[in-house]
């Protein structure tokens, strides 16, 4: 999960929303237009009670033709106010809805762009399902806040202030009484609102937990079904959803109670004051029109307070969402490009040279267990080096350091004589091609999956890379050849076919340094024979590091490095290492049938 500890830190509730200001500032013009429409609509609303008072006191209070004239005039004026109100409300709705959609889109893009730049360390402690929940559920809450709630809040604040002012103009005595009563009822509403915010945050966290669990299980469906755990996982997800539901119900119950308290207390105070006003009309100290105007303004003020309590609920939830999104945006990757990166020397004809000097590395999640300890090795340009060893020896960790997914705690790694920490990350990774053991196939066609290695490659170059990787033949047999959709995570392909797509992708990139992590592990004997020649051709003119257990790949390497517990324990050729009778000879006997 993302920064669980940071969630427990005390936060300023609505104040948290100030962190979203940078997403609002680019749209000052739209906010100004929305504000104008808002002020006009609020002014038109406040004009309606005054028009009613004039209609009652002057229209119904006069007689004959004058009465009819006044009635016609004030009804026309009332309709004119309604027209202004309608146009201004429509303009306000359009502008704030546009702002809500625009700002939400910007936030989603900013969060996603920031997350994809994080190092693997970030994803050691963060579930992708939780990130997706924040990109969807949390941004939707902020969209509601910006596209609806802020507008409603400002509108009702204007109506509250304007209505209160007009109430003073109508009857200062009654307004003073009602204000004293309102102050007495606002305090419990504010205190209870804090409880609503806390429950809102808990509700959003439970939804994120459910999303994370669902994402994990859906990505592992073959394993779930192979172990017949469908019912178990359904029950587990059901419990998580039920937990989220119960938390949401507590939030809804608290918010409903808050709304009820606000309405009862506020309207109770207003009804009492209006009772006093009715007696004032009977006593002749107030006209019927004035009482009607006061009642309408009281309703506007009360409605404004009630709406503000609703808006506060939305704002509390959005504040929780903003905290979670800002946590993502504030996450800093420990792996970054230097401010002034060094340039790599021009590419050599025979690849790149690598030097590792006393490299020690432990994963951040396991700081006391080094994956690599004091490793030193020099690999010449154009050399093919096989890295072998038992599981957990540090082979894959070595590749992750070369790609600078992590930085070693001690020692240096140099590419063509330059410390890789002094290189731009993209420049470094552009020089490296990798075929991972767990091949990633995107939800696209075969052409685009291979072109992922070099986005500007032509169709002809993609086909050439596929032929080199022995992938062309099976791709041609697909229903739409290179335009065939390969399914999510390449489910329409066999393991060997997915691996050949990955090899074609790496060959298309044409890097000076090639990393092969069990590149032939998923291939049958015939496919391996086909692709072995392709890999040998690909190794020409570049430096290649191979993690492999297959004898054919290991035997053809210029040098074999044997690792155990993060250290190099042996180095040499296949024949010399077998003759030495050490760890490699044992591995060869077990894995390759060597005696």
Describe this structure in words.
This protein is α/β, with parallel strands linked by helices and 595 residues long. It folds into 2 domains: 18-330, Up-down Bundle (ABC transporter transmembrane region fold), CATH 1.20.1560.10; 344-431 and 549-595, 3-Layer(aba) Sandwich (Rossmann fold), CATH 3.40.50. 63% of the residues lie in helices and 9% in strands. It contains 20 helices and 10 strands. It has helices spanning 4-7, 21-24, 28-59, 64-115, 120-124, 128-170, 172-218, 221-226, 230-283, 288-330, 395-402, 425-430, 446-451, 459-468, 472-476, 495-509, 525-539, 551-555, 574-580, 583-592; strands at residues 354-361, 372-379, 384-388, 410-415, 418-419, 432-435, 513-517, 543-547, 559-564, 567-572. The strands form 2 sheets. It has a 6-stranded mixed sheet, with helices on both faces. A 4-stranded antiparallel sheet has the order 2-1-4-5, covered by helices on one side. Strand 4 (410-415) and strand 5 form a beta hairpin. The longest helix has 54 residues, at 230-283. It starts with a helix and ends with a helix.
